[in-house]
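Sample intake sheet
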Amino acid sequence: MNVCDPKTGELTVAQIFIGVLGGSNYTFCEATWSQKLPDWIESHVRMFEFFGGTPKVIVHDNLRSAVTKVSRTSPVINESYLRVCQHYGTHPFAARAYKPKDKSPAEVAVQIVERWIIFRLRKQKFFSLTELNRAIRQLLDQLNHKPFQKLPGNRFTAWIESERSALIPLPLDRYETAEWGRTRAGIDYHVTIDEHSYSVPNQHRGMEFEYKLTSTTLELFMHSKHVTTHTRSFVRGGQTTLDSHRTQAHNAVAGWTPATSLEWAKTVGPGTEAVVSMQLPKLSNHYFGYRGLAAMKRLHHDFGALRLEQACLYAAKHRVMNTEDLRRILAGNLDQLLARDAASQNASPKPVLPANHENVRGASHYLKILNGEEDNEP
């Protein structure tokens, strides 16, 4: 059936899910957006609640959401569908392909729903799935209360009198729709589920996990033992990583910020802080920022805080920001030469003897010698 978008007028075809109890023919039907696994499971949950219990066996069709591998004798049931059946205490039993008699009550119910519900609603326009299901439910109640032609009563009374008490009672907790499957972690210790990556403990890289994906959470298991839980993300191509899953080195990289570099530089001195402040605006991302901090720490380790600070004072004055240039200054002992030059310039000048000292003859003495007025004797 069609559902019209109230804004654009676009029509979307909704699928009709039908279930029927074999003894009373008590019928359930509703509209869903698709036959995909989440819609398939949610419809089952609402069907069980409508019936007030579950039968011991469910005979279902061979759609992909129910059967992973079709086989006449041993079909492989979808893991997620199997889990919901186990939760409600029932057993799935796939009908054989091209054998409609295996589920003849359902096939008859399809014809009746088409005639008594879908046909009667064909000329109405619905603007939401909720609105469509509200109209379906009204006609469905009429259908279940419609008298049998050859038997006393109707579907509803037959369900009340003979079948409701035979159903397995519903569990106390409503089943939360979940998708189950298997996945393997890559070398980056992340698994990718529904186009989003989630972390696992780094020591489990490359290993296989079972997962349970709900609308809110992702749970990962290994050999049926719980490993970790993530809040589900719907960001396509995104990544969710817990700090506890990272290696120590990866945590150091992820935890770097510009403030981290500046705080460390302040402990060395104002020259180092000035150089780091000039480096930070040139960074394209935090990975290069972490590398820059690691390079400065290596200089600190190799040459000591005093020499690094002296080199950075010169570098800051002459706009030298590259750590390789700083290493060349330190390796060539240029920082020590610069320090000695600065010390000599700042040293106090030697005392000057007074001009009238007896050992200082002065210009007038030599002028007399040149004029022959006095002998040149020591």
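Comment: The longest strand covers residues 178-184. The chain has twelve helices and 15 strands.
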